[in-house]
Structure formats: structure tokens, C-alpha cells
Amino acid sequence: MAVTRRSPPTERVVRLLDFFTARPGERFGLSDLARGLGMAKPTCLGIVTELVAGGYLVRDPRTVTYRLGPAMIAAGRVAGEGFGAGEVAGRHLERLSARYGATCTASAVSGDRILVLASAGPGRVELGQTYPFAPPVGLMYVLWDSDEAFRDWLAKPPAVPIRLDEAHLHRVVAECREHGYLVESLTSTGRRLYSLMAGAAADELPAEIRDLVGKLVSSLGERVYLGADLAPRRKHAVSLLAAPTFDASGRQELVLTLSVGESITGAEIARRGAELVAVADAVTAESGGRKP
Predict the structure, then answer these.
(1) Residues in CB range of 248: below 8 A, 6 or more apart
(2) How many CB atoms lie within 10 A of CB 270?
(3) What angle do CA 6, 79, 130 make, to 5 degrees?
(4) Does 128 score more than 90 pLDDT?
């Protein structure tokens, strides 16, 4: 007969994680956790300290409370690979990537983070890579959502200093909703911004990084081409194209991207944009969603 050995220290870790997952979105101080779990505070502190170090919990230095961290999100996504819109998107993006020899991704907002769910093609993006969901990062994740979701994102404390040109930003929103996709210009600024912020929380960026990124970014939506910018026969430096998928309630669910990384004509941009929208529509339909 097999002998089953239990590990009390491991059992305490599992109980602590179960405590958080049973209370989604909530934050707890050390005393609350120790009391709720029936643990001694020093024992509880040792566990949460290790979980914070591993990214499974996040400690808010202002309120001295804890919440589930991005490593838990990534682990959950990987464990659930083969299910949901992310897996559906991955299959479609493989074909789109092969057509253009380009990197394609599917990502979504989870809490206050942007999470990469699928990647295809050369230069694959790491599954589970996260970015702060706070201005100036995250515009494309609310462009095709409700006006309320857009306002909520805009009201978030910015990850870095920004300037807001409301008239330009509203033109960006209106045109992207009309065309169904976004065209991001190719600039060294955009690349440096994402590389600096990858994996970091909006409120954890060191002051020197915030200042540097603030100098790189001038205003929200500045890297998005508007229709008037794109002449059919003239070449334009394009970083990527992005299009949304929708869930069963008609809310924006994923953002699919097609990397370009070179100068192409306005006509070619329109052709690739239409193909990306078609892929996004197929993902929406196959995953049980509907366009609003």
C-alpha cells in the first residue's frame, strides 16, 4: 500500500493561496491573514514574504496589504492552456504569422495587468509576460470596449507622466472603432517604453525609470496613425496592427496583434488590417462571443 506523507508547511502555503482565490479582488493585511488562517503572525509573514518574492503575491507598500500577483495569473493561464479564447486565438494566429513571417500575439487585461496569453511566429513573446494596465499603456485594451471602461482606464493614476490631448485622443478612439483595427507607428520610443515597463507594476517603477519614460512619451495616442496620415501609395513606418475580440456579452475580450516592424504602403496597411480583423472575428465567433 502506498504511503501518503503530508507536509504541514506546504499545507499552510496552499491554505493561504486558497484564502486569496476564494476572495477575488480583495487585499489583506498580515494580521487579517494570520487571524483568518489561524496561523501565528511570524509563520504567516514568512510565507507571504516568499510568495511576494516569487510574484505569487503583491505587497502594497502604502497600505501594507497583500493581493494575488502576476505569477499566479500566468500559472493559471498556463494550467488552462487548451481552453478559452486565448487557445482559440493561438491557432488562428499561427496561420496569420506563417502568412507574413511575423510575430502575432493575443493578450488581455487581468486585474491591473495586461497579460500575454498566446504568441506565434519569430521572436515569440513569453507566455505570461505582463505590463501595467495604466496610461500610457493599455489604450488598445479599452478602445473597443464601453465608454465607461475607457473613462475608467483614463482615470487611473498614470504609470509615467503624460500629457493628455483630449481632442486627438477622441479622434483616435472614433477612427479605430470605425475601422476595427489600430495602426501603431514604428518608433524607438514605443519599443523602449514597453521594454522598460515589461513585468513591472505601475506603482513599482523606480523614480529614475518613471522620469526617463516620461521624457519618451508626450501624449496618449501619439503613436497611433489616423486615417488622414495613411496615403495608399506612400510608405509608413509601422510597428504593429491590433484588433479586438469580444466575449458573449459583446464586451472587448482580447487584443490580437500583427507585428510589422517596417515601412509599408497605406494600401498594404489596409489589407493587413482587414485580414487581422477577419481573424479577430473568427476568434470571437469560435469562442462563443459576439460583436457589439
Answers:
(1) 288, 289, 290
(2) 16
(3) 115
(4) no
Give the lowest-confidence range in 102-111, 135-144, 220-229, 261-270: 220-229
Is the backbone of residue 224 left (phi > 0), alpha (psi -120 to 50) or beta?
A: beta
Shortest CA distance to 87 belongs to which of 73, 101, 106?
106
Residue type, 54: G
pLDDT at residue 170 is higher than 70: yes
Amino acid at 200: A
**In the 8-state DSSP scheme, what is residue 137?**
B
DSSP string, 6-41: --HHHHHHHHHHHHHHTSTT--B-HHHHHHHHT--H
| Distance from C-alpha of 27 to C-alpha of 29, rounded to nearest angstrom | 7
CA 193/CA 136 separation, integer angstroms? 9
* Cβ atoms of residues 213 and 162 within 8 Å: no
